Amino acid sequence: MEIQLACHHCDQIVSIPTLSHGEHAYCPNCHTLLSRTINARAQKVVALSIASLILLFSALLYPFISFSNQGLSQTINLLDAAKILFYQDNFFVAALIDITIIGLPFVLLTLFIPLHMGALYVLPKPLSRFCLKTIYYLKPWVMSEIFLIGVLISMIKIMAMAEITFGLSFWAFSAFVLCYSLTLYYYDSHSLWLQLADQNKIAIDESLGSRAKNQNLRACHVCQLLTYDDTCSRCNSKTSVRNTQHIQWVLAFTITSLICYIPANFFPIMHTWIFSIDEPSTILSGVFTLWQIGSYPIAIIIFIASICIPIGKLFVLFWLCYLVTKKQHISRKQAARAYVLIELVGKWSMIDVFVVVILVSLVQLGVLMSITIGVGAIFFAIMVITSMIAAQLFDPRLIWDKKRFSE
């Protein structure tokens, strides 16, 4: 069965034929992956989702990491990270940890299983729409894999001062991250939306061009249905040929992110208390400390994730907003590549916040040594969240609406 889609990156209308196992369909204009066929996709998603849920529950039941220094020890489980932050009145960061690494994956996995077992054929359509739209909006905010990398980095930072032991939950959580990543690889939202309602057959007027905008078509941003209507008939989302007001929202969130980035670097991201003496640490001072003790790879990773990526992302967002609002020719391919890059790496800046969270959870040895979270970490987390929202609100199709110069 041939399917008509408008590429969500460049708005090119593409007719995709029935694909064989292992075949991929790419947009002929911007080379974005549009569809791929995998044998027994639904069965693989169900099996991996069940395995992921079992591993996630296992990761909550046993010790995660143990920290020992001068005869004093501290053992935490996965839930203790947020619990200790709650005790320290850091409710925002505590809620962020539990939601992004435990809550959201649990919700998504519990939806994946019935939806891939045929539930869409029997559920009421409003409930089916709600489930699929929930997956669409929540999926980008899962940060379990970033948390795992943050754990490994934090362990390298404190191995020189203490003995570290990884518990059973750590290995269960690592396996969970692997299974969850494979689940997302096999997951295909478009095939699920097709179970709810087939794609409309649209007659394309070749004389008007091959983009949906030229045909006055609206490509639903949620389910990719092509329609002439203001409301998508399949998912009930509002549709528009282009919503230029989104640029104002992108700029608003980008400016908010920039404002938060200044105190995030100025204020300490954590406080180390040794015999009740406070040793505050900012992001840059933490990078310098890692470099001085010889942890060059970790220092470089933190510097890239916490300094280079946020600055680069904000610069690219401002640059893209400028390009699509000014009447000038642009290099569309370069602008499109820049957008794909910031969309891909945006949430990885959260590594530094997760590193601090693990250190705060582990290093609680009374007056001998303890670590508390600093206000800089809160500003940094808000900066990452607002920059992610700005990137999601930006419509990359606006790039391809512009006239280009020779590339």
UniProtKB/TrEMBL annotation:
Keywords: Cell inner membrane, Cell membrane, Membrane, Transmembrane, Transmembrane helix. It comes from Pseudoalteromonas spongiae. It comes from the Bacteria. Its main location: membrane. Pfam families: PqiA. NCBIfam families: pqiA_fam. The chain crosses the membrane at residues 45-65, 91-123, 135-156, 168-187, 249-276, 296-324, 345-365, 371-394. It is a multi-pass membrane protein. PANTHER family: INTERMEMBRANE TRANSPORT PROTEIN PQIA (PTHR30462:SF3), INTERMEMBRANE TRANSPORT PROTEIN PQIB-RELATED (PTHR30462). Belongs to the PqiA family. It is found in: Cell inner membrane. This is Paraquat-inducible protein A. InterPro entries: PqiA-like, PqiA-like_proteobact, PqiA-PqiB_transport.
